[in-house]
Design brief:
- The protein is of the alpha/beta class.
- It has a single domain (2-85, 112-152, 220-351), classed as Rossmann fold.
- It contains 13 helices and eight strands.
- The protein has helices spanning 14-27, 42-47, 76-87, 90-97, 100-108, 112-126, 144-157, 159-172, 180-193, 195-226, 243-256, 283-310, 330-351; strands spanning 2-7, 31-36, 56-58, 68-73, 131-135, 232-238, 261-269, 316-321.
- It has an eight-stranded mixed beta sheet, with helices on both faces.
- Strand 6 (232-238), helix 11 and strand 7 (261-269) form a beta-alpha-beta unit.
- Helix 7 (144-157) packs across helix 10 (195-226).
- The two termini are 30 Å apart.
Length: 354
Amino acid sequence: MKIRIFVGTGGVGKTSVTAASAVAAAIDGRKTLVLTIDPALRLRTALGMTDSPREQRVEHESISSRGELWAVLLDVASTMDRLVRTDVSEPEAKAITAHPIYRLMLTSLAGMNELVAVERIHQAIADGFENVFVDTAPSRHAFEFLDKPEFFVQLVSFPLVKLVGRTFGLWKRGLAGIDAGSSKLYGTVENLVGAALAGQVLEFFAMFQPVAEGYARRARNTIRTLSDPKIAGFTIVSSPGRARQDGQYFFDELTRRKFPVEMLIINRLWPAMDLKQSPRVSPATRDLIGWYESVCASQGASRDRAVADWAGKGQRVIDLPELARDVDGIDALVRIAENLQKSNNAASSSRNPQ
């Protein structure tokens, strides 16, 4: 079992690199899932996916007969529905998912994508995928799916929250066993926001409490799994001009949270070309060649500075060349996967010379 999380700023080709890494694992014979939690949904375009919230199998002639490539877009509603049915009985699950507060929570509560992302990773592990590749939202948003679950865990574990979740139903039915303090609390809430709204909110919270506690347990376990370098690894993807800055920022943020950094990928390097100029070449062509060579030289210098900064960190640096055309389907991802394999082999050889 291996989980690889890809982080980076916008516009550096992170989604394509994530998908291509999953393609490489499938070509190598593994049952692989690529999951995007990036709301931009670039993965759907790269793999020609439909809008279905379920895993979709991606076929290609290069994928080993033993390997499988699946892709899925993070869908809050389907992930939450499955989450609910994990922790309560079917009648209780139907009551929760039909509740108006539940529907409002799915459509209007900010941060739901980040909260359910960890649950979706847990579901992928439970579904038996050997490799899971996760494409995150760009820049600082990448860390929200790691940080928000812990906040929710702490909230659910707060004594007052537990008290409300476990006693409101008894209070509403007028059963014994509710102390005066709890009774006064519910009465005060009704006076403040109105009996009908307070009743709906507190009723839903009492129903949802077992689900919240189940989510909290799994979230903690999944975050713990993502912190285990034997199982998980984080890959930073950047462009040549931003590699030094991005590499340092993401490395610092991940190590501060105690997550294992696996490698830095410097993507979209323009390949150096031997452009010998004929004496008869036009001035415009000569200028174009000079411009290309200057861009390559600038990228190379930026790349070398990033590699020098990275040298003491102990992780690999992988170079990926710019493709001649946009990533427009599985064939382009296979080409990136092949480049990844070549670069990985080259990096391994340089670190372990014979």
